[in-house]
Amino acid sequence: MLLTLYLIAITAEAMTGALSAGRRGMDWFGVVLIACVTALGGGSMRDVLLGHYPLTWVKHPEYLVLTSVAALVTIFIAPLMRRLRSLFLVLDALGLVAFTLIGTMTALELGHDYLVASISGMITGVFGGILRDILCNDIPLVFRRELYASVSFASAWCFLGCTYLELVPIQALSITLFGGFLLRLLAIRFHWEMPKFVYDDR
Amino acid sequence: MLLTLYLIAITAEAMTGALSAGRRGMDWFGVVLIACVTALGGGSMRDVLLGHYPLTWVKHPEYLVLTSVAALVTIFIAPLMRRLRSLFLVLDALGLVAFTLIGTMTALELGHDYLVASISGMITGVFGGILRDILCNDIPLVFRRELYASVSFASAWCFLGCTYLELVPIQALSITLFGGFLLRLLAIRFHWEMPKFVYDDR
Amino acid sequence: MLLTLYLIAITAEAMTGALSAGRRGMDWFGVVLIACVTALGGGSMRDVLLGHYPLTWVKHPEYLVLTSVAALVTIFIAPLMRRLRSLFLVLDALGLVAFTLIGTMTALELGHDYLVASISGMITGVFGGILRDILCNDIPLVFRRELYASVSFASAWCFLGCTYLELVPIQALSITLFGGFLLRLLAIRFHWEMPKFVYDDR
């Protein structure tokens, strides 16, 4: 089940990456690269920071093919994208929670403690989007819109709580997926935001 | 002594990171993340480039807690910050030299030669600030104001010189800390700058 | 032969990096750092992603000296640079193909398959320039001008094709170098570009 979610997630993230590249008028090669970085960058960052080799896309190069194809498809169906916006937000929410779960579990399997595991989950969840925004020369959106990194953080701790309570893995996964997904959708619907810190020293 | 300095340094760097994030109006989560990257990013970059695992914050997750708390405290005492500016410059100067020393010693312990050790020290000293500026979408300040990277480089070579002369570690540390700290403060006071290279090909 | 090409390539790339830093009015330290990142960043990125330690410049710190000297020389001969522009485009084209070949061969030697090897070649070829543009706060140029990343990709697959056909290494190298170099020069001469994806959702 998690693998299916992962494949949906990298496809959806690749498509948001391709749209970002399109907003900057990049060529097709750039579109494919930004799509791959958005979809696989969070996991790669986690693996590099934890020294967990080989990286996912080195072990499974077919994921690179999947994200590249998703990027090229996005180019052709771009005019449809406006109408699919809500579908995207849903897929992206699913992806965020799925990425976070995978990152959290990876760190636990490597024997790290809960705090590091939650950071690992959050890096996996949000860093693809951060790298996308850096490459497109934007201020990372992650920290400026509705609850996003916080949903990732909350999902990681929800899963860790379930693990601590020794729930069966499938239960822990389902509860976290449902809870994190719902939290993200509610945040979008009601524009829940973290308080902002505005500092002006001039 | 170096550990105490290190803790002061990551706290001070976390606070400068939080202020940068505040200038961009990020939410609290973004503030905490930028603070952690500023404080721990230089050391992480060094460890990833040298293949030195586990990273500091993976081994000591309590440092993440310290930098996060420092970031949140910064949010609440921000109005005070203007008056504390000189204190900050002093702490930041101490931190720069302490980070550089730690980076240099880490590379020596791993068996690298002097040139690589000095680069390792400089990466540890200045890369946190560079990553902060990239995430906040600024041109890294490090290369545009008073001697900063150069102080780091000079400190690394001062320590390596002391090591070469076979001074006792505590002497080498003290001389470098004092010398580097003084050099940085003098550079701020008298606006010492590296010459700039301005190239316009249009 | 490849080593000679590599040395020419890192020198040429260091000089383009130094010019970029000069356009942003950075100080000499910044110029040297941007030059080193431009010349050695692609290979470092590849080695970190593949877990291939030690990195090139850790093993051969003399390359850092070479790129630093190239950067400093650039500062002094900058007024000449305008007239040398075509020489630079030629050296840069050679460097792109040489970097790509080295990256592709490194991945093959580590036992990776053709797809990962071609990605490894492309990362080595183009990431130095991408990092340069990120540090200088530009949108990476790589994806907005004449065929560049595509030349790298095509060169990688040309070499892999020769390897598959079991040509002698020297033949595979020569064919790829000549082909990739010619393709890049033709692309510059006739302004061949990848189609662009322009998406505007406002």
Number of domains of chain A: 1
CA distance, first residue to last residue of chain A:
52 Å
- Helical fraction of chain A equals over 70%
The count of DSSP E runs of length 2 or more, i.e. the number of strands of chain A, is: 0
Q: How much is the radius of gyration of chain A in Å? A: 17 Å
User: If helices are DSSP runs of H or I spanning 4 or more residues, what is the number of helices of chain A?
Assistant: 8
Mean pLDDT of chain A: 89
Strand percentage of chain A lies at under 5%
Shape of chain A: globular
Please outline the major beta sheet of chain A: none
Output the helix-strand order of chain A: HHHHHHHH
> Would you tell me the structural class of the helices and strands of chain A?
mainly alpha
Oligomer: homotrimer
The largest inter-chain interface, given as chain pair and residues per side, is: A-B, 30 and 33 residues
Poorly predicted ranges of chain A: none
Protein name (chains A, B, C): Membrane protein
Domain Glycine transporter (chains A, B, C): 4-78, 90-161
Transmembrane segments (chains A, B, C): 63-80, 87-108, 114-135, 147-167, 173-192
Membrane topology (chains A, B, C): Multi-pass membrane protein
Q: Could you describe the 3D structure shown?
A:
- Chains A, B, C: This is Membrane protein.
- Chains A, B, C: One of its GO terms (cellular component) is plasma membrane.
- Chains A, B, C: It is a multi-pass membrane protein.
- Three copies of one chain form a homotrimer.
- Chain A has 202 residues and is mainly alpha-helical.
- Chain A has one domain (2-190).
- In chain A, 76% of the residues lie in helices and 0% in strands.
- The first copy, chain A, has helices at 2-23, 28-50, 56-59, 62-81, 85-109, 114-135, 149-164, 169-190.
- The interface between A and C is medium-sized, with 33 and 30 residues.
